[in-house]
Amino acid sequence: MESAESEFNSKGNIHSKDELIVWLMKEYGKSLVRVAYTYVKQEQLAEDIVQEVFVKCYKKLHLFREESSYKTWLYKITINQCKDVRKSWNFKNLIFNNFSSFQSKPSNDRSPEEQMMVYEESKHISRMVISLPIKLREVIIFYYYEEMKIEQISELLGINRNTVKSRLLRGKQQLKKKIERGDQVGR
After folding, report:
1. CATH 1.10.1740.10 placement within the chain
2. 110-187 — its CATH code?
3. Which protein family is named in the record (predicted)?
4. How far apart are the first and last CA of the chain?
5. Nearest in space to 136 (alpha carbons), one of 111, 105, 165, 95
């Protein structure tokens, strides 16, 4: 595994804590918002959580022990922050938006009609993913959307590799059933 020091140094010679935080925000900000969204299902709240993650990161940067990469460290902070928010009374009273706003933009190589079809399909699948139980949803998101390896997901979530594999399988099976039934999530 790449160490945090080599991960950071490979991006340039940054000498201050402020420069490091700016680099981390640029490098991982969007991914962290996407991950936070999978937990809280609300775009603005996900952005607020990630902002709080970077504030915590800034305050505790001196405690970073380089036992993992910055990416893994930030993901863990984000997940913990999301779990705290989900436990709060306020969270239970929020209105949720859809996950599709975080998907990659349609390709300009397609006609407008094709772009719209791809967007709608992506939006529908995203809704189905978000409707999965959190334990299945998080591994699906990390594996397919964040393109993490099973070992990375295992380390990040603090669960056995085989547990990650079984949750991936169950998540895919549930998604397949939803697609076959033509579930209209959120309608």
Report:
1. 1-97
2. 1.10.10.10
3. Belongs to the sigma-70 factor family. ECF subfamily.
4. 44
5. 165
DSSP structure string for 99-139: GGGGSPPPPTTS-HHHHHHHHHHHHHHHHHHHHS-HHHHHH
Tens-place pLDDT, residues 66-77: 777 888 899 999
Could you give the CA distance from residue 57 to residue 77 in angstroms, rounded to a whole number? 8
Query: Is 123 a residue whose pLDDT tops 60?
Result: yes
Structure tokens of 148?
């993490």
The CATH-assigned architecture of domain 1-97 is: Orthogonal Bundle (1.10)
105: DSSP letter: P
pTM: 0.56
Q: What is the pLDDT of residues 31-44, one digit of tens each?
A: 999 999 988 888 88
Rounded to an integer, what distance in angstroms lies between the CA atom of residue 110 and that of residue 149? 30
